[in-house]
Write the structure tokens for this entry.
Amino acid sequence: MSSRKLFLSATTVLLAALLMPLAAQKAPNAGYSKHEKAAYMDQNLVNFVRPGVIAKIVSAGIAKDGTITARVTITDPKGLPLDRDGITTPGVVSLSLIAAYIPAGQKQYVSYTTASLKPSMPGNTNPTQIQAANDSGGIFTKNAEGDYTYTFKTKAPTTFDPTVTHAIGISARRDLSEFLTQDEWAQVSNDVYNFVPDGSAVKVTRNVVPTAVCNNCHDPMVGHGGSRITVELCILCHTPQTINPDTLLSQDMPVLIHKIHMGKNLPSVIAGTPYRIWHRGAWSDFSD
């Protein structure tokens, strides 16, 4: 065999060896996007664990005394009910809920559920701020596997308006770290349920920029460590009532997002004042 033929033969073998892993790589597992690690996992492990979580609020109500309740279902991507405690199905599922309403004649939510937040920056003496937040200390009652009723610890005032739009938002996170190295955001689900306590139809909603628009660039949009992945949920907390205690800057969604995206073009930044937020013990600087 000539040296040229030997070279071509060796090259063919080498290319085949290099390309074999690519050829062997199967198409993504059904139900998972190409961005998720679960799309390329061994099918047997996928069938057992069924990574992912889908949380849905199926009903909600507010009693005359202000007691707020929401019925929630949690399933895997194929609809199998999940045990919130992770005993009968793989992975504990943590659930956080928020309750808000749109006052008559207004356009943005006001949260019933709030938290007092002190400055966390060393030496900062700013006053404590009351912010929209998830409810804390409520009670879950199990109706069936994957079906729960949550009774909020926070109560609406007895003077609440039963004729205006109310909303319950939920963030669910499934912990599958015992079984796989997970994409944090891939094990998260958000949902928002709008209702009117007196039983009438919902006529007023807030839907200025849907999540799909943000995901044209971000794919996926994530916040707070990946537990917030939809604009529809974000706007329940990021309202005019929410002020950052360390900077005293508004965390209202329109203000926050417009300033973040303007960055170096903000007039205040051009004038020499950086746009940054102290969050979770560090600065997030959006000035560039």
Residues 3-8, 13-24 have pLDDT under 50 and may be disordered. The chain is about 20% helix and 25% strand. The CA atoms of residues 29 and 41 lie 8 Å apart. The first helix runs from residue 3 to 24.
